[in-house]
Amino acid sequence: MLFGKRERAIRRILIVEDEPLVAFDNEYSLGEAGYEVVATVDTLADAVRVLAEQEIDLVLSDIVLRGEGDGMDVARAAAAKKVPVLFVTGNCPIEARSLGIGCLAKPYSDKILRTALNALDRKLQGETVKRLPAGLSFYEGV
């Protein structure tokens, strides 16, 4: 769009994070940046429930979660609804590459998270992203 803000592909986000302070920081930062955080959950069961009940544009998921299941199970559930997943984790396993759209390495700042989401949004809209923020990697096929 000329002389205006580009329409975002990512507007509604589900946060799946087992560390309460990280979850709170992400929720606050994304809300301030104009995203709608649909829910913040810390288990696979809660993530599956929200995916079934809500329209979601992106899932931000840690790999390690409370209870049974992990972030890769969340990504499988999201894939069934055609919702992309960006893993946010300290150590992204190789097998996650076939399940998510990319990975943002922990620790990261609020600014890096917002910059990563902007880059991902541009990528999802077919634009070329020449420079990625520190800690962000996209997986093949994205």
UniProtKB/TrEMBL annotation:
Domain of life of the organism in this record?
Answer: Bacteria
Write down the Pfam families for this protein, in alphabetical order.
Answer: Response_reg
Q: Which GO terms describe its biological process?
A: phosphorelay signal transduction system
Q: Which residues carry this modification: 4-aspartylphosphate?
A: D62
Provide this UniProt record's keywords sorted from A to Z: Phosphoprotein
Which residues belong to any copy of the Response regulatory domain?
12-121
Report whether Lyase shows up as a keyword of the record. no
InterPro entries per the record? Bact_response_regulator, CheY-like_superfamily, Sig_transdc_resp-reg_receiver
* Species annotation: Sphingomonas parva
Q: What is this protein called?
A: Response regulator
